[in-house]
Design brief:
By secondary structure, this protein is of the alpha/beta class. The protein has twelve helices and eight strands. Helix 4 runs parallel beside helix 5 and helix 8 runs antiparallel to helix 11.
Length: 258
């Protein structure tokens, strides 16, 4: 990541680290279960969880993996994940602050590399994917989850504006075609993939990023003034003039190193 983006990510997520540990949307769901199912089938002895966030994927994999390494760019986030995982009794997870574009591991160190709900913060996807592939053993798997981008330009612009107003460190979400191209360029082959829809409760979603009341009010006005087709595409619900929830799509990909 370029330095300005690194600093923005750290400033955005450091104060909110504990909120991500307790976030129900991050703690579980069909999306995490899909990654875990893929991981169980791979049966890797050593797993790397890149941009671990609240540590939920690392904790889930620690239940059936001999050794898990959690990394994150933001130290308070890593510390929050460490405390959470240790409180759960998992003793086979190590924690290391590092940048996805410069992972401090030897080539072919891991049988599985996971990255859940973080790639939309990476300003340069290809270097990140190449670095994740580098530390992956031949035949090993990258198990990736992220917000899925839209091919429709108006819908893509609409949700990007919402995401960036809520979280200035958000870069953008990739489409299926873009993911396949980046993974192929990194020497990876897509073996399996899926798409899920996930509901977001508006109050919780905005509060987690500690938006000011003024910024939140401006964002709500933007959503309500948008074309109806945009709100419908993301299932926005509005009751008594207040936004209640919306939904976005998640892409889940298993890609193996050639």
């Amino acid at each position: 990541m370029i330095p300005s983006q690194k600093a923005q990510v750290q400033a955005q997520f450091g104060p909110s680290a504990r909120d991500y540990v307790t976030s129900a949307g991050h703690a579980g769901g069909d999306d995490l279960e899909r990654l875990v199912a893929w991981g169980r089938k791979r049966g890797a002895a050593c797993v790397l969880d890149v941009a671990t966030g609240g540590g939920h994927a690392a904790l889930a994999f620690s239940a059936f993996t001999g050794s898990v390494v959690s990394t994150d760019l933001t130290l308070p986030m890593l510390e929050a994940a460490r405390d959470f995982i240790r409180e759960k009794g998992a003793a086979n997870v190590r924690f290391l602050a590092s940048d996805v574009e410069s992972l401090p591991f030897r080539d072919a160190s891991f049988g599985v590399v996971t990255c859940r709900l973080a790639a939309h913060h990476f300003p340069a996807i290809l270097p990140a994917m190449k670095e994740m592939a580098r530390v992956l053993r031949p035949g090993g798997s990258i198990l990736l989850e992220d917000i899925l981008g839209h091919d429709d330009e108006e819908l893509a612009a609409f949700i990007l504006e919402i995401e960036k107003r809520r979280d200035p460190s958000h870069v953008r979400s990739l489409t299926h075609r873009e993911w396949e191209a980046f993974l192929k360029a990194a020497g990876l082959t897509v073996i399996d993939e899926g798409t899920l829809t996930k509901a977001r409760r508006w109050e919780e979603w905005t509060a987690r990023m500690r938006m000011t009341p003024e910024a939140k009010a401006d964002l709500e006005r933007f959503v309500k003034a948008a074309p109806e087709r945009c709100r419908e595409a993301f299932c926005f619900t509005v009751e008594n003039g207040r936004i209640q929830s919306f939904s976005d799509r998640l892409t889940l990909i298993r890609a193996d190193r050639d």
